[in-house]
Design a protein that fits this description.
The complex is a heterodimer of chains A (490) and B (497). Chain A has 490 residues and is mainly alpha-helical. Chain A has 20 helices and three strands. The chains are: A mainly alpha (490), B mainly alpha (497). The interface between A and B is medium-sized, with 32 and 31 residues.
């Protein structure tokens, strides 16, 4: 694997960072402002995609920004794993930007300038995490993401938003400073580096007890992955406007948490070391408990966004679980699920937002018969939930298939049971929503009102992501290729 | 080529200008600004050149008036003092812009008196940084203290009482220091630091030397307000005129930390038994950890921005004392780096406080409502300063904390690690409480229909603040070169990694 020095990774991060300036300056001209957002979104995706061929060919890009600590520069590196995540995130940002325009305008939200500027910062930080070459750089962008999303979570600026904002920061900032920072310093003092290296850097550097402690610090410290008991912020953060929930709490923020954990597992510990010390079980136990508990809690939620949030908590642990199996198939499934779940869950959130825009309904119990008035939205919702349940022909099937293979390969029947039971639970909490939408409620009332969909700006993105979920089942090649390269040590 | 006694000009410029300000300021207020800024600008430039020269040619000693030591006064220009020289003069320069504006507002008619004391104080701080003589250090310490008493007493309300309180505590601290110097003089017969350092190892009076060391340390701890010797600081700094606070708060404690390093390693040495003694060393790191925790906890109880900042300042003193006493390269690097970073962070926050008080008239928490709309740039800079104190990369506060934690991990002082992390978390609570108030609550006098117009602070208050906020990030990103090229050279021998 050869890395060439290039400004491309910086440009891919910087484009949305710089876009905040014109966004802030065109406060009074919404059309111009949204043009900047869309321009930055498309530009970012193009910049990321421009690096794809080189990465697929086994190469990559590297750029050192500043020397800060001996042996640990602030450095960007585009490898297969980072490319995989950046590709998904930057593509979905385009959809979200379109959706945001429709959603925010339809609801006549206040302070849209601040909203779009913070969003641009958040996506810059997300791509920064994807392209971080070492743990310190990753931490830098991780914190930047935490702080730039605070104004988004608390957008409503009411008492509820304030309480949720506090909870959000307490969990996210509290764990990153309280757990990840010391773990990072200890790792540095043991090894003198924080580089993500194939096979890890910690092998032979510390006692098993220390390593186990470090692993737990990292697992719980990256609270964005919402492994229980660090999950409380995610349902609370649902007070944010729906595009924020869909992109940040369906894709960017939570996946950054999972991605960070996977980076630590692959690049700091190394699967071989974890296998040696049998620390995989620590990971899989935490993840399994989270999967089951979150799925059960999701059943009880009547608020649609909260149900989706608990579903997200469960699904995030799938990815961690896959990595914790420490088998090739399991790790493939875990990584792939980042993308598959992203497309599925963002669709579901988009639908929840579209329902709210069109009917101002938040609770599932109020949504009887709504599907007859919003067929496109409910159709997309069905596709999204099938993908997350893991049915063919949707993308979610592929990742779950690999996860199951991995669990069988690791000869851990308990994990197989967890995966199967959870899929059933997923179906149990998603499908009734669709059923009620199409079949429940008085027949006449629905038809009398006619079709009442959300604005096109909302409808188009959710159709795209829903169809993309189907597309990923048939054409997962690029993503699979990237995952294989990532696991091969690239 | 710069003249060989360049550093002396750095010191002399504010001192001589102080008198010019007093005389010409009586004639016309218009003189004060250009004179003060000119002198400090000159000092900053001189300090920069001095630092560059030291980095190029190495440190040197300078005898004032060619009176040879041990009788004459010797100045020491080494990487550490040159760095401090630049830090003090640059911070003072930035603070002066803001002070000029605040003083006109708060002390009309007394500007010339204020800036006379102000400039003498800066000259005193620069002198402290340079001196290589233990008794001269005492004299300069008193010069800075007495001018500070005067400046604080010029504040409103209970300022005079706070200043009196400070006089008592400050004098006790000075007595301790002077006693320490007295012991050393009895033991060695000299007051020159290098001379003492040469004679001390040959002395067979460990108890007397230890007593001298302890007196010196306690004296300096009182002066730097090392918890629990901190009682004077919160009142003094929060009742001082705004213009005095922006300069005193960032510099005074940091220069005293520098003096502690000087005394420990220029008079004594790293292998002096007291420093190497595990009980004493561990005890002081524990004390520093407690200082950090208690000060941070006390900060939580404050209801006024500037008062809260003074308690955070106390916690930061604990960071640096602990860092030095970790007695390893990383801890020492962290402490010296934190002197630089903390001076800038404190400057940033006090400048922001000065800008806010100029517009709102108060720094009580309930008066900070709606500030993000009213003063977006000020609050942006404030936020950067807050993030730096919390320790969010890439602001500089993260990197000094990194070195301090690393030093504590290497030394096995887990209590210090815990204290540093706890303090970061408490800082997050403290600042997000303010950010919340300023962000969520609408301004008290805002009618809903009228969009609030921006009421940014005047340029003299705002611009130095923005420069400082940018510097926080720039210094953070430049940590590598800064540590590699300056601070490593500035560390006491035996501590460079």
């Amino acid at each position: 694997m050869s890395y060439q020095s290039s400004l491309l990774p910086l440009a891919a991060i910087g484009i949305s960072l710089l876009a905040t300036v014109p966004i802030l300056l065109s406060d009074r001209r919404p059309n111009l402002r949204e043009s900047w957002t869309l321009l930055a979104a498309v530009g970012k995706f193009c910049l990321v995609a421009a690096m794809l061929p080189a990465v697929l060919a086994g190469g990559g890009f590297v750029l050192t920004l500043a020397e800060v600590v001996p042996g640990v520069p602030i450095q960007l590196r585009v490898d297969a794993m980072g490319m995989f995540f950046a590709l998904v995130a930057s593509f979905l940002w385009i959809c979200t930007s379109l959706y945001s325009v429709g959603y925010m305008r339809a609801l006549k939200e206040h302070d849209q300038t601040r909203y779009f500027a913070s969003f641009a910062l958040a996506i810059a930080a997300t791509i920064g995490v994807a392209f971080a070459a070492n743990l310190l750089t990753l931490y830098l962008f991780y914190e930047m993401l935490s702080l730039s999303t605070y104004p988004l979570v608390t957008h409503e600026q009411n008492a509820e938003a304030r309480v949720s904002g506090r909870k959000y920061l307490t969990y996210i900032l509290g764990t990153s400073i309280g757990l990840v920072l010391p773990a990072m310093v200890i790792t540095y003092s043991l090894t003198g580096t924080l580089d993500f290296a194939a096979g890890g850097i910690l092998a032979g550097k510390a006692s098993p007890a220390t390593l186990a402690l470090l692993l737990v610090l990292f697992l719980l410290g990256f609270a964005k992955a919402a492994i229980m008991p660090m999950h409380g912020w995610l349902p609370a953060a649902m007070v944010a406007p729906t595009p924020v929930s869909s992109f940040l709490h369906g894709v960017a923020v939570v996946k950054v948490g999972v991605f960070s954990i996977l980076r630590v597992i692959f690049g700091i510990f190394g699967p071989a070391l974890l296998l040696d010390l049998d620390l995989g079980t620590v990971i899989t136990t935490l993840a399994s408990v989270t999967i089951m508990a979150a799925s059960l809690v999701a059943l009880t939620q009547d608020n649609l966004k909260r149900r989706l949030a608990y579903s997200t908590i469960g699904q995030l642990s799938y990815m961690v679980l896959g990595a914790g199996m420490l088998t090739a198939a399991g790790m493939t499934g875990g990584l792939l699920h980042i993308a598959m779940h992203a497309f599925g869950k963002i669709t579901l959130f988009f639908c929840a937002g579209a329902i709210y825009v069109a009917s101002h309904k938040k609770y599932i119990s109020e949504m009887d018969g709504l599907g007859r008035r919003m067929p496109v939205t409910y159709g997309a919702f069905l596709l999204g939930s099938l993908s997350i349940i893991g049915m063919p022909p949707l993308g979610g099937f592929i990742s779950k298939w690999h996860l199951l293979l991995g669990a069988i390969g690791a000869q851990q029947m308990v994990l197989v049971l967890v995966l199967l039971a959870s899929s059933l639970l997923n179906a149990a909490y998603f499908l009734p929503i669709v059923y009620r939408g199409f079949f429940a409620g008085p027949q006449e009332a629905g038809t009398a009102a006619g079709i009442q969909e959300a604005p096109l700006f909302c409808l188009i993105p959710l159709t795209i992501t829903a169809l993309a979920s189907v597309g990923l089942f048939f054409f997962p090649d690029v993503l699979l290729q990237l995952v294989r390269q990532a696991l091969a040590g690239g | 080529m710069s003249p060989p006694n360049l550093h002396l000009y750095v010191l002399a410029a504010p001192l001589l200008t102080a008198f010019a300000v007093n005389l010409l300021g009586r004639v016309s207020r218009a003189w004060i600004g250009p004179l003060a800024l000119g002198a400090l600008g000159f000092s900053t430039l001189g300090a920069l050149l001095t630092l560059l020269r030291v980095l190029r040619d190495g440190g040197y000693r300078y005898t004032v008036g060619n009176w040879q030591p041990p009788f004459g006064i010797e100045l020491v220009v080494d990487p550490l003092s040159a760095l401090m020289l630049l830090l003090v003069s640059a911070v003072a320069l930035l603070a002066t812009f803001s002070a000029l504006k605040s003083v006109v507002n708060e002390l009309p008619g007394q500007e010339h008196l204020f800036f006379t004391l102000y400039l003498i104080l800066i000259a005193g701080l620069l002198g402290l940084v340079l001196t290589g003589d233990a008794f001269n250090l005492y004299v300069l310490l008193e010069i800075t203290s007495i001018t500070t008493y005067g400046l604080i007493a010029m504040g409103k309300g209970r300022a005079a009482l706070s200043s009196f309180n400070y006089i008592i505590m400050g004098s006790i601290g000075a007595c301790f220091y002077l006693l320490g110097v007295g012991y050393l003089y009895i033991l060695t017969g000299t007051l020159n630091m290098a001379d003492i350092a040469r004679i001390l190892p040959g002395l067979a009076a460990p108890a007397a030397v230890a007593t001298a060391f302890a007196f010196l340390m306690v004296g300096l701890w009182v002066k730097m307000a090392f918890f629990p010797l901190h009682g004077w600081l919160p009142n003094a700094y929060s009742h001082a005129p705004t213009g005095a606070g922006v300069m005193i708060a960032p510099l005074m404690t940091k220069v005293t930390i520098y003096l502690m390093i000087r005394v420990m390693f220029s008079i004594f040495s790293p292998d002096y038994t007291f420093f190497a003694h595990p009980g004493v060393q561990a005890g002081i790191v524990w004390a520093a950890s407690l200082a950090i925790l208690c000060s941070s906890a006390l900060a939580l109880a404050q209801r006024n921005l500037r008062r809260m900042l003074t308690y955070i300042l106390l916690a930061e003193v604990g960071y640096m004392v602990g860092g030095v006493w970790l007695a390893n390269g990383s801890g020492m690097t962290g402490a010296v780096l934190h002197i630089v970073n903390d001076a800038l962070m404190t400057l940033c926050l006090f400048l922001a406080a000065a800008a806010i008080i100029y517009r709102t008239g108060s720094l009580d928490f309930d008066r900070l409502q709606g500030l993000y709309r009213r003063m977006p740039l000020t609050m942006a800079a404030f936020t950067v300063g807050a993030f730096s104190l919390i320790g969010v990369p890439p602001t500089c506060g993260f990197f000094s904390k990194w070195y301090l934690i690393l030093g504590a991990v290497e030394a096995g002082h887990w209590e210090f690690v815990a204290a540093l992390l706890a303090s970061s978390l408490i800082n997050a609570v403290l600042f997000f409480r303010i950010i919340e108030t300023a962000y969520f609550n609408p301004a008290p006098d805002a009618a809903d229909s009228v969009p609030l117009r921006s009421e940014e602070a005047p340029a003299l208050l705002l611009n130095p603040l923005l420069v400082t906020a940018v510097a926080l990030v720039a210094v953070g990103l430049g940590t590598g070169p800064l540590v590699e090229n300056v601070i490593r050279l500035a560390l006491p021998p035996g501590f460079a990694p």
